[in-house]
């Protein structure tokens, strides 16, 4: 992906990546079950978040819906902030930034539709997945090459970390930590 020097400079200042869920962290499909709705998350997005966290980035999910599956994914990935039932995503982002002690210009926001625009407009850097509507793609700093729920979040983490000194170096540091943890606990062994 080719981004301008100004956008790279803003990406270099990002300390927190906030995102919507439906259409960003998922493909936007809403499987409804009797007692809750389900979500289909992409493992590579999760690994990107893990590498980003290891590199010092903070993460927030700001969504207009409420869903137990999102809470579970937030816990699995140890995402720093979860705001559900958000009706004002600009205020929600400002509140998250205040809790982190950072300026909203040090945050990136990934959204995919009209309800995400307020958050994207106040963030220091905005992005959307490749499959966002054309009018949303026209209003953001970065149109990602990947679709929502198919690597857009990972791509954004890579973009930010590349601007801050290198995605590959951050991934190598994450991998080294994984190797150290595996050496200590040996992992899970299945026997028949």
Can you describe what's shown?
There is one protein chain. The protein has 192 residues and is an alpha/beta fold. It has a six-stranded parallel beta sheet with strand order 3-2-1-4-5-6, with helices on both faces.
CATH architecture assignment name: 3-Layer(aba) Sandwich
Contiguous low-pLDDT stretches (5 residues minimum) are: none
Share of residues in strands: 5-15%
Coarse morphology: globular
How many beta strands in the DSSP annotation? 6
Order of helices and strands: HEHEHEHEHEHEHH
- What is the total number of structural domains? 1
Overall SS class: alpha/beta
Q: What's the tally of helices?
A: 8
Largest sheet, in brief, is:
6 strands, parallel
Fraction of helical residues = 40-55%
Mean pLDDT equals 92
- CATH third-tier fold name: Rossmann fold
Distance between the termini: 47 Å
Describe this protein with a few key phrases.
192 residues; 6-stranded parallel β-sheet
What's this, in brief?
The protein is an alpha/beta fold and about 190 residues long. The chain has helices spanning about 5-10, 45-55, 70-75, 90-100, 115-120, 135, 150-165, 165-185, and strands spanning about 15-20, 60, 80-85, 105-110, 125-130, 140-145. Helix 5 (about 115-120) links the parallel strand 4 (about 105-110) and strand 5 (about 125-130).
Helix-strand layout with pairing:
Layout: H1 5-12, E1 16-19, H2 43-54, E2 58-62, H3 68-77, E3 81-83, H4 89-100, E4 107-110, H5 117-122, E5 125-128, H6 134-137, E6 142-143, H7 152-163, H8 167-185
Parallel strand pairs: 1-2, 1-4, 2-3, 4-5, 5-6
Helix pairs in contact: 1-7, 2-7, 2-8
């Amino acid at each position: 992906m080719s981004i301008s020097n100004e956008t790279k400079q803003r990406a270099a200042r990002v300390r927190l990546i906030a995102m919507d869920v439906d259409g960003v962290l998922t493909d936007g499909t809403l499987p409804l079950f009797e007692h809750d709705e389900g979500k289909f998350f992409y493992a590579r997005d999760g690994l990107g978040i893990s590498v980003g966290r290891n590199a010092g980035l903070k993460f927030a999910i700001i969504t207009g819906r409420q869903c137990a599956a999102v809470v579970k994914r937030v816990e699995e990935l140890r995402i720093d902030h979860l705001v559900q039932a958000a009706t004002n995503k600009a205020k929600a982002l400002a509140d998250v930034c205040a809790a982190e002690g950072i300026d909203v210009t040090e945050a990136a926001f990934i959204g995919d539709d009209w309800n995400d625009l307020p958050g994207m407009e106040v963030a220091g850097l905005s992005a959307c997945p490749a499959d966002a509507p054309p009018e949303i793609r026209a209003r953001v700093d970065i149109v990602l090459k990947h679709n929502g729920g198919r690597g857009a979040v990972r791509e954004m983490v890579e973009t930010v970390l590349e601007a801050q000194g290198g995605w590959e170096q951050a991934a190598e540091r994450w991998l080294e930590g994984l190797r150290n943890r595996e050496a200590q606990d040996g992992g899970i062994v299945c026997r028949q």
